[in-house]
Write a structure and sequence with these properties.
With 122 residues, this protein is mostly helical. It has one domain. Helices cover 56% and strands 3% of the residues. It contains 4 helices and 2 strands, in the order H-H-E-E-H-H. Strands 1-2 form a two-stranded antiparallel sheet. A hairpin with a 4-residue loop joins strand 1 and strand 2. The longest helix is centred in the first third of the chain and has 25 residues. The two termini are 27 Å apart.
Length: 122
């Protein structure tokens, strides 16, 4: 849970690096919270089948949109890539697969142009 909260504390932090653990724990908790909110939306009648979102899950998605982008950019920085690589996800299927591979890669050892290794060793 600390990894999730650390991403929220760095709400607008697009500089620096984020290790895999930070990125994937954020997405794990994000998915859990969205699932819970979707159940609540369905049970309270605030789910809109046309949009695929409910009131609570829609508000939550808007709140975590910027931190999601920020941690994704920092994760790409950790693999010595520019944040602009996120745009590859606009290419159907191939973009998702390429971005997934980037996000699964290990950190660049030592310091790179985006800062020191967040694992703390050189």
């Amino acid at each position: 849970m600390n990894w999730y909260l650390s991403v929220l504390r760095k709400y607008f932090a697009f500089q620096g690096r984020a290790r895999r653990k930070e990125y994937w724990f954020f997405w794990l908790f994000n998915t859990i919270f969205l699932a819970i909110l979707s159940v609540l939306d369905n049970s309270t009648g605030t789910f809109n089948p046309d949009s695929g979102y409910g009131l609570l899950s829609g508000i939550y998605s808007l709140v975590v949109f910027i931190p999601s982008l920020a941690v994704s950019v920092r994760r790409l920085h950790d693999t010595s890539r520019s944040g602009w690589w996120l745009l590859i996800s606009l290419i159907p299927l191939i973009g998702f697969i390429v971005l997934l591979i980037f996000m699964l890669q290990n950190s660049t050892p030592g310091q790179n142009q985006y800062g020191a290794n967040p694992k703390g060793f050189n």
